[in-house]
Amino acid sequence: MRLFKKGSSGSSNNTKARANSSPNVNVKSKGSGGGTVSADGKSTVFRVPIPDSVQPGQEFQVYAGNRIVRVKCPPNSQPGQFLQITVPIDPNESSNNNSKPNAGAANKSLPPDSPNVCPVEDRDGGPPAYMVTIPEGIRGGSQFPVTIQGQQLMVTCPPNAAPGTKVRIVPPPPPPDDVESSVGMSGNPDSKRKSMADEETQLFEVQVPQGVKPGQSFALLAAGVRVLVTCPLNAGPGQRIRFKLPKALTTKRKPRSEAVEIKLSYDKDGWTRTIRVSDMKFQWVRMDDNGDIDTNTRFDAEKSAYVRKLTFQPGGDERVRDGVMTLVPASDAFVDSRVKAYNGEVLVTYSEIADAQVKGFEEKAVWFQEKCQKLRVEWSEGHMRINVRRNFLLEDSVDAVMSLNRKDLRKVWRFEFIGEMGIDAGGLTREWFELVTQEIFDPDMGLWMSSETNQMCMQINPASKFVCDDYLVYYRFLGRVMGKALFEMQLVNGHMVQYIYKHLLGWPITFKDIATIDEEYHQNLKQLKDLHENGEDLEMLCLDFSTTQEFMGAKEEVDLVPGGSNIEVTNDNFPEYLEACLRYRMMDRVKDQLTELLLGFFDVIPEPLLTVFDFQEIELLMCGLPKIDMDDWREHTEYSGEYEHVNGDYPTCHWFWEVVDEFDQEMKARLLQFVTGTSGVPARGFGVLQGNDGNIRKFTIHGVHVGVCLYPRAHTCFNRIDLPMYETKDELREKLKLAVTMVATGFDIE
């Protein structure tokens, strides 16, 4: 994709700006014009400042008149110094170097104002206003793009408006037409650079790709950052549109985490989080084989993904917010990229979040704690003392925590166990978090149950509604406790199934995630999928859009969609049947409980702060890095497949343990998550590791030929890793790290 900076003709020498270009800067030229013309009249001399982030030998882009040129930083130069460059005269420029005609020519290549935009005559001398007609298909609360004065803007439809209604808007002032004209108007060549530094934004022009329709979004790399741009309603393929990005966001950051480096090195097709240009919010997109956005809307078991959408609403009690949670296509889910205080002050910016995303796990944890400190209510403004009875710990704790408002949740808590001597200097707080989470995760409580695929992971009990009338209060309480534990860097005494961590983070849920909670059910659906792909008549199976669920020993038929028991599964609607199964197992079955859990969690933690973590890291942050005894791990490992007859006495097996020994604690924990589904280690060690049937299933290394699978493959229900018989230790190290790391991206590496 071709990307142009403002004023670029896109055709002259060295004026193409690559999609992953280096930082762009304004040119400070000799004199007040566009540069000093040489004696022969064939070139112009400019003085160019070296940007802060540029190293010797690295290329960067600069304005030279109305064009963009690439400059290579000399070996002995450094940021802040000026270079003198000579640029051939642009034949399209006028002989007197007056930039305004060229600016006008450039503007002619931009799309005109949208047809549904009409300027409003302002007799008071205020900023220009426009009347915008709401397009067809737009409803209250949804957004639509318009182009005004060459700027792409997103307009939010008012709640009481409808298609055809006109709304009045006052857009932000457009940027100057070009660098040199702004210099001429101000008389100060530094004024434009100073203005851009104040705004901390950078203007880009992009050519709308072929095949993109008006109103459709497309992704591109701008200065190395993947962004999502919406094509204006009156623009089309080949036309150029402009957008701005924060400079801090486009500054290239060197990954400080081995896991991040691996993900970036092997970036490939799959779901990825981008920044949306229209409002600077994070949004998920899926790239196809050509690097374009996958616009397929029908369910595909290999590609489709869904993200929970939580819409907050005022509650009947001012201390408790209500909310509605739905499962939407991943491409329709977005999250703010800034964190604001209760008074509206911006505490964390998108550039800070972008910088944190490339940190290592330990650095991320420190960064997260620092941001939580900003959100903490000062001791002098109030703090909470919570008194509980040890024999009635859960009941007293629920009453205390649920009586607090959201601001109270960010105050300092101090605990007292009634009838016991002791001052809480941190030890009682730590004990309270451990005991209360241990009790509420206890399967005997009836709120949670062990996962069918991993006995160490807890999943929400669908039958919890029969435990007590106010069962949802306990999930809201636990959400608040988990959020407060994360806020205070305390640990939660319980590991949850993987998809709940994904819901906490707003990460995509895919068809493969069903296997993490019910491997047998997932295999049955895969068999149906194979029959469908082979052209078998599914109507012969007499299936409908319903499922049977067992509650407290009684079986109940549940519709997957409204009236599902009356809808027969056919070859035509089979994709919709798979989608309905995924929605039910991943959300609808425990939707009420899950909604309360997340509402409680976000009473404490702002969602944008979580965007720096993946679902493996959030488990490690909440439950802590496990203490792994490598000798115990080796001793209680079994071997099968090609390694069974030698009982692991094979070069590949020896290399495996040597590589694992080299791993740091984070990578060892990720390996455990990859193979067993959780970072938790049984209290009695690896010798009592359980499988999905509740029986002992020791960690198993299964030998396969490289032709069977190129990368290590995990079977979490059996605690087994399929390890190809690699020829070198280096190859094993590379493939193992890649497999363990990429599982957190949702990419399929087979």
Automatic annotation (TrEMBL):
Organism, as annotated = Fistulifera solaris
Q: SMART domains per the record?
A: HECTc
Active site (catalytic residues) = 717
Source domain of life? Eukaryota
Q: Name one GO molecular function term.
A: ubiquitin protein ligase activity
An annotated GO BP: ubiquitin-dependent protein catabolic process
Q: Name one GO cellular component term.
A: cytoplasm
Keyword set includes Transferase: yes
Name of this protein: HECT-type E3 ubiquitin transferase
